Amino acid sequence: MAEHKWTGCVKSLKGVILDMCGVLYDSGEGGGVPISGSIEAVKRLKESDLQLRFCTNETQATREKFVSKLQRMGFELSVSEVFPPAPAVAAILKERGLRPHLLVHDDVMPEFDNVDKTNPNCVVIGDAAEKFSYKNLNDAFQVLIGLEKPVLFSMGKGRYYKETDGLKLDVGVYMKALEYASEVEAEVVGKPSSMFFQTVLNDMGLQPHEVLMIGDDLVNDVGGAQQCGMKGLQVRTGKYRPSDERHASVTADGYVDNLATAVDLILKNRAQ
Q1: In what order do the strands lie in the sheet with 15-18?
Q2: Is the pTM of this model over 0.85?
Q3: H or E segment at 219?
Q4: 51 φ, ψ to 5°?
Q5: Residue 28 pLDDT > 90, yes or no?
Q6: Which uninterrupted H or E stretch holds 11?
Q7: Burial of residue 194, with CB atoms counted within 10 A of its CB: 0-12 exposed, 13-18 middle, 19 or more buried
Q8: How far is CA 204 from CA 22, 43, 81, 151, 191, in A?
Q9: Which residues contact 117 (CB under 8 A, 6 or more apart)?
Q10: How far apart are CA 206 and CA 267, in angstroms?
């Protein structure tokens, strides 16, 4: 496949969806650092005729705090443009009358303030970081194993993500442990769920073939977008590894060094 074969689709594009961690910035101590060129790349997309949304599996902060962090880094974005899993899960819980046992990061707990958590009849897990202790995982397991019809929600299913000091285990690892122990299949809310991507497309008012997804995760960003009918582009930043380009089950529609390069190619080819 040619390096930039994907550029043939850009003239018909009407929107772009960006992953955040690993594409816009690398997380870490102090909130993380922007990836070179990404702030200007977002600005250029916003100045174009393309709709722009941000799709993230971030579950270590409320959407408002997360957006504020990115704004302090210099990114131009608003809360309404960002789609994380926690608000979507909270809405599902209320719609289905479910009462969760939460294994999530302390900073995302406010997203569930209006959800009944008494006498749990399901489990919700997110990227709980240091709260992924044996005791906390076992508590979640005991809730599931005690239910006649156990229900497990996972906010994403990533294997790992990148911080400034290296790769870190993500929520999917712990999701698999609970699935195995309790013999239940998790309902994933977040990437790569087609329903999650469709929520973003609905907000844009666009069809999948009109939108390009750009991410650093081959399976959750690229693969998830492709399953929904979008093109998926992988950047060589964040969790990217060279072996991704030889992955057996998922092949990106294109690979670029970083977001700045992707935006250069998109805008150049749209102008031709």
Answers
A1: 82-83, 51-55, 15-18, 211-215, 231-235, 254-256
A2: yes
A3: none
A4: -75, 145
A5: no
A6: none
A7: middle
A8: 23, 18, 10, 31, 17
A9: 99, 100, 101, 102
A10: 19
Distance CA 117, CA 102 (A): 8
Residues in the chain: 272
Contact residues for 83 (Cβ-Cβ < 8 A; gap 6+): 53, 54, 55, 56, 196, 199, 200, 203
Whether the predicted pLDDT of 2 surpasses 60? no
Q: Which residues contact 169 (CB under 8 A, 6 or more apart)?
A: 132, 159, 160
Measured between alpha carbons, how far is 159 from 124 in angstroms, rounded to an integer?
Answer: 17
Q: What is the pLDDT, as a whole number, of residue 248?
A: 67
240: its two tokens: 């990217």
Q: What is the mean pLDDT of residues 114-140?
A: 97
Whether 22 contacts 239, CB under 8 Å: yes
- Kindly indicate the confidence band of residue 141, based on its pLDDT and cuts at 50, 70 and 90: very high
DSSP alpha helix (H) spans, the chain? 38-47, 63-73, 85-96, 134-145, 171-182, 194-204, 224-227, 259-271
* Strands of the 187-188 sheet, one edge to the other: 100-103, 122-125, 152-154, 187-188
From the list 80, 95, 81, 159, the residue with the least C-alpha distance to 127 is 159
Does the structure show a pLDDT above 90 at 263?
A: yes
pLDDT at 6: 87
In angstroms, what CA-CA distances link 116 with 102, 104, 120, 186? 11, 16, 9, 20
